[in-house]
From TrEMBL:
<dbReference type="Pfam" id="PF03000">
    <property type="entry name" value="NPH3"/>
</dbReference>
<comment type="similarity">
    <text>Belongs to the NPH3 family.</text>
</comment>
<dbReference type="InterPro" id="IPR043454">
    <property type="entry name" value="NPH3/RPT2-like"/>
</dbReference>
<keyword id="KW-0833">Ubl conjugation pathway</keyword>
<protein>
    <recommendedName>
        <fullName>NPH3 domain-containing protein</fullName>
    </recommendedName>
</protein>
<feature type="domain" description="NPH3">
    <location>
        <begin position="97"/>
        <end position="404"/>
    </location>
</feature>
<dbReference type="InterPro" id="IPR027356">
    <property type="entry name" value="NPH3_dom"/>
</dbReference>
<dbReference type="GO" id="GO:0016567">
    <property type="term" value="P:protein ubiquitination"/>
</dbReference>
Amino acid sequence: MTEDVEKGNLIYKLEVFFTSCLLHGWKDAIVTLQSTKAFPLWSEDLGITSRCIEAIASKVLTHPSKVSLSHSYSRRERDDVSCNGAESQRLKPASKGWWAEDMAELGIDLYWRTMMAVKSGGKIPSNLIGEALKIYAARWLPNISRERNFNKQVGSDSDSDSTNETTSKHRLFLETIVSLLPAEKGAVTCSFLLKLLKAANILNGSSSSKMELTRRAALQLEEATVRDLLIPSISLANDTVYDVDLVITILEQFMLHGQSPPTSPPRSKLGFERRRSRSAENIDLEFQERRRSSSASHSSKLKVAKLVDGYLQEIARDVNLPLSKFITLAEAIPDFSRLDHDDLYRAIDIYLKAHPDLNKSERKRLCRALDCKKLSVEACMHAAQNELLPLRVVVQVLFFEQARAAMGGGKVTELPSNIKALLAAHNIDPSRPTAALSTTTSIQADDQWSVSGFKSPKSKVSTLRMKMAEDELDVSDLQSDGLGRSSKFKAFCALPTRPKRMFSKLLSMNRNSSEKN
């Protein structure tokens, strides 16, 4: 069979056929590589597997790859490549990433080796590699990240060998995809990373894979949606619907990466400008780069704050959600990241409705992160009538609502001393008129709060009187509470011990203002 016996023997003919026909054609190389699964040891010894992988990788690297992958592009629309490699005109792929869909048919071992060969070439952009991995995950992990009860089904059928084998197979696919993720930020979307994290949570993936996905998702958290963060909980010791601890870890990682050293403002230019050295220009470029990164970090924190508040509204409906986890998430966001506290107030209101058994101290802790100065007019009107809120929060809302009405309308020339003290505690100059809050900010119709509609001013008085009868506000109560040490409540410590007289003055002030109008 060798050339030692006679020219043109079988081994030589097979080598020529394998090289010029099978390895030269794209689909033939894919089919040949798939066929090596039947005889893996022989294929490795004869070098068939490695040569097929090299041929496939070389063909991928020869194609330009600036066009995104298309999931709708089907291999069935292409003709088979002939043995001599001739292709018809209609074989030109509609997408420069045509290879990813074909490679998705490979088994996990062969796919990993082929993708490593493609990545080592250094010619394929990282985002195209990420899209190829997304196609492969959709092929072999169908709907696994959306099945909330998948883990429960696995647990109920734990005696079945086939179920355990399927779970182990899916876990292997997941671990391999995570190991192939490009290192560059933005190579894959945050939504895809969180879907992989959901699958890892359901399939009980390794802790290293979970931490890697958590770290990478934290770097792009501003791209996520509330739906992406709703990761089902699989812990037997945790009765919550969603895995809040995992989201807290992601948020902590995001805040850790978002920290940047403060930068000093650039010096003002003089009337003349000296010629600058190259090192000075490099320093200026580095400074501008830090400024841009700091600005991007600030804008991303604003987006993440809206994301967390929306997530809080979703998980607040869970009756088994501990108060400590809700507070941890709410207070993890810096104060400057929330331009308004309407979404946070809405989440607190939902949590109060779902947990009516909270005592007075727990309700105070829940409202600790709420800043009444950042509530809109509609939110203030709702909070003033919300019977679920602690009395001190209602008092704060009434104070700021009255202060805004007085300073913005110009009807009242002198504010009460108590309101002046409260404004001074929050660095607000009572002598400087401020613009009234815009009333165009409306609450979305689909976000229903606990009190339907807004009540008349008389209902505010009745609600307040009912709260006063339930809980008398005095200085000793505020000082004994550890939360009263914050700057928000220092102004309350200076209030008189008889709040009824103060409220009567405040309400008479409202009445006089309405009569003048």
